[in-house]
Amino acid sequence: MTNAELNDLKKRYVANGAASPATQFADRAENALIWDADGNRIIDFAGGIGVLNIGHRHPKVVEAVKAQLDKVMHTCQTVMPYEGYVKVAEQLSKVTPVRGHAKVMLANSGAEALENAVKVARAATGKNNVICFDGGYHGRTFMTMAMNGKVAPYAADFGSMPGNVFRAPYPVPYHGVSEDEALRGLKMALKTDANPRDTAAIVLEPVLGEGGFYPAPASFLKAIREICDEHGMLMIIDEVQSGFGRTGKMFAIEHSGVEPDIITMAKSMADGMPISAVVGTDVHMDASGANSLGGTYTGSPVSCAAVLAVLDVFKEENILEKSQALGEKLGKRFEKWQQQFDCVDNGRHMGAMAAIDLVSDKAKHTPNADLAAALCKRAREKGLILLSCGLYGNTIRFLMPVTIEDEVLEEGLAIVEESLKELVGQPATA
Ligand code: PMP
């Protein structure tokens, strides 16, 4: 079917289908390229929103998934366990930097991992509250909507949210929130709203994802570790977007040397197969009763086969080094753009978790969300998928596969540059 025919079906039968601006239907994909239903070739700088760090349909993952399909597709692991689940648990326990010996529960999505992390923290501490952060994003289930640092568009239409969720500022000096101020805000939240005697966990992303790709300073993460220890609260680190090699290490928290109690992960762990994980210190993970965590599909054998293949690819193809190298390349390009364009500011990257902010006034860091939207639209017309994000909607984030071929990367970056030139005029220094 053509894009036009498929769009017609989408508008008629898909919830919110008419409101969604994406109109090209993916037909086939390989590494950083997608071909749509009409045969157009598109460069993918979104990687399925951070899911495809090793590229679309990595051959080793495809092979492992196919082999698994020929063996067993589903049992529900509580009814009859299978090798893939326990092997994934073993492997994740070994690579995830949580305190002590780690145990693992698998789920299907990032939001579900966060839900379960909060369940574990409540069971382990006997306490109820969680503290989350401005700009944070954790999902679209009720608990995670309550935990998000932003109401619209996620929670705006769905009535009241679960309670026991309190918020603190995330340090983003670029937007005027210093590390000291953020820590003061956190301590204030603990003194006023969220009594530490009833607070089970502090939950945060080590680098804000949807909130704009701002990394938390190592000293801030260390301070949170200390506060958690002082009050018997768990430190839950959400690595759904930053994990699995995006930042040049397996997990972004490794840049700080801090060991949290629980890490949640999803996205790039299975190259597109749906799966997520909660990895935490054994005593906490074992705190709730048998059959209290999980669900019918959690840790599907097919997704588990994909995770094991992804972990092999990380070792065999030096994915962490590739992530570092890509980040450095992007960082250099950002510097050039910042000199070239008045509207490009704050180029930054932790490994390949890389972003720029678009502004209308560089000195004042005034966000220009309209320009970010226009850039993404113009790039899409030229055959490049580009994503914006951030509390102010003016961050352009780069989540292409770290395995992207140099020519494809250059071609994509040239489209960004060309689109910017068209939108803001030819820069004087170009
Ligand atoms: N946490 C973070 C940090 C995320 O970036 C996301 C997704 N963007 C989620 C949780 C939710 O994951 P999912 O969409 O798989 O539920």
UniProtKB/TrEMBL annotation:
Cofactors, names only: pyridoxal 5'-phosphate
Entries under Gene3D superfamilies matching the protein: Aspartate Aminotransferase, domain 1, Type I PLP-dependent aspartate aminotransferase-like (Major domain)
One family name in Pfam for this protein: Aminotran_3
GO BP annotations listed: gamma-aminobutyric acid metabolic process
PROSITE patterns: AA_TRANSFER_CLASS_3 (PS00600)
GO-annotated molecular function: 4-aminobutyrate:2-oxoglutarate transaminase activity; identical protein binding; pyridoxal phosphate binding
Enzyme nomenclature, EC number: 2.6.1.19
Signal peptide: none
Keywords: Aminotransferase, Pyridoxal phosphate, Transferase
UniProt KW Transferase keyword: yes
InterPro entries on file: 4NH2But_aminotransferase_bac (IPR004632), Aminotrans_3 (IPR005814), Aminotrans_3_PPA_site (IPR049704), Class-III_PLP-dep_AT (IPR050103), PyrdxlP-dep_Trfase (IPR015424), PyrdxlP-dep_Trfase_major (IPR015421), PyrdxlP-dep_Trfase_small (IPR015422)
Source organism, top-level taxon: Bacteria
Family under the similarity heading: Belongs to the class-III pyridoxal-phosphate-dependent aminotransferase family.
Protein name: 4-aminobutyrate--2-oxoglutarate transaminase
Organism: Halomonas alimentaria
Gene from which the chain derives: gabT
